[in-house]
Write a structure and sequence with these properties.
Residues 5-233 form the ABC transporter domain. This protein has helices at 44-51, 71-75, 92-102, 107-120, 136-148, 166-181, 193-199, 217-224, 242-245, 269-277, 291-299; strands spanning 3-12, 21-29, 33-37, 59-64, 67-68, 77-80, 154-158, 185-189, 202-207, 210-216, 227-234, 249-254, 257-263, 281-287. The protein is of the alpha/beta class.
């Protein structure tokens, strides 16, 4: 599989003092759904702007499709910004047309692409309406239609599900998966770990302008977690088991559950639990290592902090 984006040693700062992107290298492969994660202020939006050529890096190199960034590579990349970029007095149709023209589409091709984009996000029936009457989810979907009207090879979506109802959220996630199945590479910036785990094939985590890890989702979880979590439910309250719990690492307890940390591939934990608590075990659940743990391990922050 080819590489669609390769950034090497990218350096960027808004003022001379503090680097916002610090020799950051990132590579994104063809047909991936690449989840870009990082705490607030990590540099995600800045990186996106630099990737799109909207901000010029102080150092490093940027290549799209094995070429230096240029007008023709730019046309192959779509961008759906976090802030809605809509014209509220124009119809949904005319909004998408505006962006289509911006990318040089015209005539029948333009019409065909507008219909494709609006149908894709489920707004074709509402094409004559103005977005000021739309719900938050519909506005986001229209924003996406504007970003995909020119049928880009890559689409960068910055937090596309913020502030939308669950139905629109699912619709957006399904649309992204479908777009990917049609061959589009997706760069997905999100604060929602469940969404990233659900749709992304690859992830990159950045903090303080540095790339902390990148790779295939399953490999990253395997590489950067040592512990699994057991959710234990016992007959009595936690205080009753103070002695037995001494031989375990207790993460937290929210009655009636106690969360224990166990080494990831420890095959003896079931017998250890049985030995310690016997018939007092009402239930227990093995929670597989997940991306949230990776994020916390690498950044010492929760994603939503
Ligand atoms: N226009 C600007 N001028 C000066 N500093 C800026 C500007 N935009 C962002 N910054 C700073 O650059 C750093 C990275 O910000 P950026 O918006 O890229 O982070 P982010 O990871 O996208 O954050 P969030 O998740 O909150 O959107 C922050 O310290 C921010 O304050």
């Amino acid at each position: 599989m080819g590489t669609v984006f390769a950034g090497k040693e990218i350096e960027f700062s808004y003022n001379q003092k503090k680097p916002v992107l610090n020799r950051l290298s990132l590579s994104i492969g063809e047909k991936q759904i690449f989840g870009l994660l990082g705490p607030n202020g990590a540099g995600k939006s800045t990186l996106t702007k630099v990737m799109l050529g909207l901000d010029k890096p102080r150092g490093g190199t940027i290549q799209w499709f094995n070429e230096r960034l240029n007008a023709s590579t730019n046309k192959r990349v779509g961008y759906v910004p976090q802030d809605l970029a809509l014209m509220y007095d124009l119809s949904a149709y005319d909004n998408v047309m505006f962006f289509g023209k911006l990318y040089g589409l015209k005539g029948e091709k333009l019409k065909k692409q507008i219909q494709f984009a609006l149908e894709f996000v489920g707004l074709w029936e509402e094409r004559a309406q103005k977005p000021k009457k739309f719900s938050g989810g519909m506005k986001r979907r229209l924003n996406i239609a504007c970003g995909i009207v020119h049928n880009p090879d890559v689409i960068i979506l910055d937090e596309p599900t913020v502030g939308v109802d669950p139905q629109s959220r699912n619709r957006i996630l399904d649309a992204i998966l479908e777009l990917n199945q049609l061959g589009t590479t997706v760069v997905y910036i999100s604060h929602y770990m469940e969404e990233v785990e659900k749709i992304c094939t690859h992830v990159g985590i950045i903090d303080k302008g540095r790339l902390l890890c990148q790779g295939e989702l399953g490999d990253i979880i395997e590489e950067f977690t040592d512990e699994a979590v057991i959710r234990l439910e016992l007959q009595k309250k936690k205080a009753h088991y103070a002695q037995q719990l001494k031989s375990f690492t207790v993460l937290d307890a929210e009655e009636p559950y106690i969360h224990l940390s166990v080494p990831k591939h420890d095959v003896h934990f079931i017998s250890r639990i049985k030995e310690a608590f016997g018939d007092d075990v009402k239930s227990f659940q093995y929670v597989s290592p997940n991306l949230e743990q990776v994020f916390f391990k690498l950044t010492q922050k929760n994603l939503r902090d």
